[in-house]
Structure formats: C-alpha cells, structure tokens
Amino acid sequence: MPRPRPAPDTYKTGLIRPPDFDQFWQGVLADAAEIPLNPSMEPVPHRSTDEVEVFEIGYDSLDGVRIAGWYCRPRETYLTGPYPGLLLVPGYISEPTLPKSWAKLGYAAVGVAPRGKLRSNGQFNPGYPGLLLENSMDRNTYSYRGFYVDAVRALDFVKTRPEVDAERIGVHGSSQGGALTIVVSALRAGEIAAAAAGAPYLCCIMESARLSHTYPYEEINEYLRLYPEREAAMTETMAYFDCVNLAPLVTCPTMVYIGQVDDCVPPETGYALRDALTCPVEFHASDDCAHDAGVYWKMSRVTSFLAEHLQPASTGRRAEQTVG
After folding, report:
1. Active site members
2. Mean pLDDT, the chain, as a whole number?
C-alpha cells in the first residue's frame, strides 16, 4: 500500500543545477542567432472575421527545421494598433492554438507550433508519446533543445511585426505550455513583459516520474525499466532542460496556477517552481483540481493578469480556456 505523500507545499527538490547550465544555453542561443529567421506570413481569409485577421506563419529554427504557427491580429477597423504581443504555447499532446479569441481582446497573438506539432512535423516527428525521450542521452541532441528554441523564436517572429509593441509581449500556456512559458521567459528575460503558466510540466523532471503514474512522465519509467543503466545519463540531460533550473532567469511578473490533486504534473513540482522563481510571482493552488489546474475558475484571472501588464485596447471579452 503506497504511503501518503507529505503536503505538496512542503516539498523540497533534490534537483541539481549543472555548473555550466548558463553557458550551455548561451551556446544554444548563440547557435540559433546565426540562423536567419526567414519569416513568412500568408493570409487565411476563410478563418478570418470582421474583427480578426488570421495568417499562417513560418520561420526557420535550429537544425534547419521550418516551424509553422498561426498569427491572429485585430483588424484596424476593429481596434487600432500598436498591439501587445502574446505567444500561446502548446501542451504535450494538443495542437497549436488558433488564438482568435485573444486577438479579439486586442492582442497580436501567435499560436506557436514547435517541431513535431501539426504543420511543423515534416522534418521532425517523434510522436506523442515519444518527444520526452527522443535522444535523451545527450543534451546536445535531445529533442527539447530544438523544441525550446522553436518556441523562443516565435518571439523573434512577433517582434518583426510593425503593428506589435515590442515592450508589451507576453507568453501563456498550460501543461507543456506552462513549461514553455517559463522557458521563453527565462531564455529571453527582459523581452517578456508578463507570463502566465498553468500546471507547468517539465519541472523536477526525474522526480516527477517517481511521483506521477501517468503519461508523459510514465514514458521515463517505462524506458528505465528496460534500460536502468541509462538513468544517470538521462538525469544529467534532463537537468539542463528542467524549468526549475531555468526559473531563476525569469524577470517578468509571472502567474503560476496548479491543481492540488494533479497526477499528470505533480503539485509538488509546482511549488518547487514557485520557490525557484525570483521574479514577482502570483501563485494559485486549487484544491480538488487535477491537471486542469482549476482553469474554469482561474481563466478570468489569467486574462486580467495579462491585461494588467500588457494593456490591450479591449478587455471586455473573454478568452477561450487554455488547455494543455
């Protein structure tokens, strides 16, 4: 019979930050900076409305992978610019958001599709499950090295748009999207004005695999049952991609919300993230809520939190609920 777990807010992680952590990511970002963005943007009239214009976008990323996404902005006849920018980053199994509801709120919004996601999967497609373990024995070839950079370069795309105020760009997502929210805010600190992360995945990764009994972390458990001798190498790699290790780099106001009975992303790791963040943090833990992180009740606060910091022209509408 499993022993009861201590209260999640008492959890203390044993995660170790590698001594060359910052140098590793500086090198990755330097490699990415050498790659021309080559942004593209094609209008999609049948998805557009009288209030919002929709575009299919593309840009280049690490390893020569072409990344797709959606870009939605208010029509000038509906709201005049400049607009705050907002990156909507996807969950593990979900496909990229078509962020029309955010554009109706006054944002120039990008639905990011890192490699492996729909329309970004022509050159890289490990599948789901699959992404979490792809090339996980080496930090220099691990799947999330490129995946993280793909999300970061969505910021570069939105900053190419003259209708976007580069001083008011935010990022938001849940589950893996919550992780990518931390990743982009950390790796481009100073360029993100506000972040809202729900049920943030990829925090205390190896410890999460021991606390959780569901996918995606169960991918780790299944793999190590077959190859127990590879645990040390995997642990070493994961430390470079753990959002708790990235958290001290975040400088913008950040909202984090979790579910206290989440078996997919253990709530203990949400507290570990909270404790690792040194920026202004607004933290919510919803009792009796699982991987949804209480979004039914918290979505209105996500909307108002981002509006307080990013100041869109219109806040009288509601965004669609964010799912991971």
Report:
1. 175, 262, 291
2. 95
